[in-house]
Amino acid sequence: MGDFEGFKAAIEEEFPGWLVWRSDAGRWYATRSGSLTDAQLQAGYAMTVAADDSLGLRALLLDQKSKER
Questions:
Q1: CA–CA separation, 42 and 11 (whole Å)
Q2: Bridge partner list, 29
Q3: Residue 1 clears pLDDT 80, i.e. is over it
Q4: Coil, strand or helix: which one is 62?
Q5: 10 vs 4, 44, 52, CA distance in Å?
């Protein structure tokens, strides 16, 4: 399954401003380290995203990153 700390570090390096953790149930989460404006929230930006695995989390973070353009 891989080393969580290694995956965590790689994701946080690829997506600065996000903090990654995994729940006791094994679900992966990322939360922004900063806050969002009301306009960003209305545009679909998320403070926290969750996925079943690291690949799913990366996909969600890529989607969030695409909103910045």
A1: 25
A2: 21, 50
A3: no
A4: helix
A5: 10, 25, 17
The token pair at 9 is 């570090």
Distances (CA, A) of 55 to 50, 61, 66, 68, 69: 11, 10, 17, 21, 22
What would you measure as the largest C-alpha separation in the chain, in angstroms?
38
Half-sphere exposure at residue 30, Cβ-oriented, CA atoms within 13 angstroms: 31
pLDDT tens for 7-58 read: 999 999 999 999 999 999 999 999 999 999 999 999 999 999 999 999 999 9
Question: pTM (2 decimals)?
Answer: 0.90
